Amino acid sequence: MIKVIGGFFLFGVLLVMLFFNTHATLLGSGFLVGDGTHVLTYHQLVKEKETLTVKFPNEDNIEAEIVFLDPASNLAILKLKDAPKVKRQTLVINQNGLGPKSESVFTLGYPWTNTLQDQHVLIEGSANIGSILIKLNMALDPVHSGSPLFNTQQEVVGMVLSEAHAKSAFPVKGTNNFAIPALLLEKALDAARINATPAPDTNLTRQAFISKSRNNIVLIEAR
User: Fold this and answer.
1) What is this structure's pTM?
2) Would the pLDDT of 20 be above 50?
3) If DSSP codes are grouped into helix, strand and coil, which group holds residue 2?
4) Interior angle at CA 140, CA 86 and CA 145, nearest 5
5) DSSP secondary-structure letter at 218?
6) Where are the beta strands (DSSP E) in the chain?
7) CA geometry: angle 159, 120, 147, nearest 5 deg
8) Which of 163, 93, 94, 97 minimizes the C-alpha distance to 128?
9) How high is the pLDDT of residue 57?
10) What are the residue boundaries of the structural domains of the chain, listed by start?
11) Fold designation for 24-223
12) Torsion angle, alpha carbons of 92, 95, 96, 100, to 10
């Protein structure tokens, strides 16, 4: 009986040790900027994580390292250890962001898994300028935090954050989702010395833009 009790005790100790030594894995989104080897995402996802893996749609997974952190703006920039194979669409960040009135916006949400059947989901909604963040009338899952927010001119005007992620980093109120404005994205890129202001491709239809730009949006596994 003593041996049995001792065995259960040792098993319990091992389970406790395994629990406290197993790093929690977080999933979130990000998008390629600059020369295509940098990923813009949000600080909460990658802070204090030892291993970062960037997963591309239907392509290889690439490890990355943090090259810039800005906790105050909840932004982070990663550097890929290898160049991605996917053909990407150069994204234009509109520093002026949104106007004073409600505007139509959209994002491409990365799916939960990374298989050949996965496709990014088009998520549409509207946005209003808030005191700190952009307020979104848009349905998002937590994994979509870190995705780019596009206006009708196919320009990046922010980075989307789910309600929970926004409220844990900023003093905002309301039951809606949010987005970090483009001005803060540009400040982070400038601080990291990354040029992300190319000339826009105005010849693309909306559908063509969505088809091409989805390769820019990645899933980040942080553990």
Assistant:
1) 0.85
2) no
3) helix
4) 55
5) E
6) 26-33, 38-41, 52-55, 61-70, 75-80, 103-109, 121-129, 134-137, 148-150, 156-161, 177-181, 217-222
7) 10
8) 97
9) 76
10) 24-223
11) Thrombin, subunit H (2.40.10)
12) 90
